[in-house]
Specification:
The protein has one domain. The protein has 117 residues and is an all-alpha fold. It is built from four helices and no strands.
């Protein structure tokens, strides 16, 4: 069982959200790069091998996607109405958790590989 190091995860989460907002303003649609950068940082910081980096990176990706989905639900229901916003939001949550979890695991493994433990 892997012991989760919460400090790097929280820092990576903050980095992911702030970078995603900045990158989305400059290059719309490229916010996923922010999650990759943040999860590489987390994988590098936690060290302990590829598995440990991948687990921590996936954790950042999943939590960040849930936060983004909650924000999208709030904005989507305000714009499109309750039924349309919720339907799109539920599908978006499922897809986002899968995609960002995979991206997070890849980034975490890359970060752990860079550290070389």
């Amino acid at each position: 069982m892997v012991e989760v190091k919460w400090t790097p995860v929280i820092i990576g989460l903050v980095i992911a959200i702030i970078l995603a907002l900045i990158i989305e303003m400059i290059l719309p649609g490229w916010g996923i790069i922010a999650y990759l950068i943040a999860t590489i940082y987390v994988g590098y910081t936690v060290g302990g091998g590829y598995t440990n980096g991948a687990i921590h990176g996936a954790l950042v990706g999943v939590v960040a996607s849930i936060i983004a989905a909650i924000l999208a639900l709030i904005i989507g229901t305000a714009i499109a109405g309750l039924a349309a916003g919720l339907a799109a939001g539920i599908i978006g949550v499922i897809i986002g958790v899968i995609i960002y979890g995979i991206i997070g695991a890849i980034g975490g493994a890359i970060g752990a590989a860079i550290k070389g433990e």
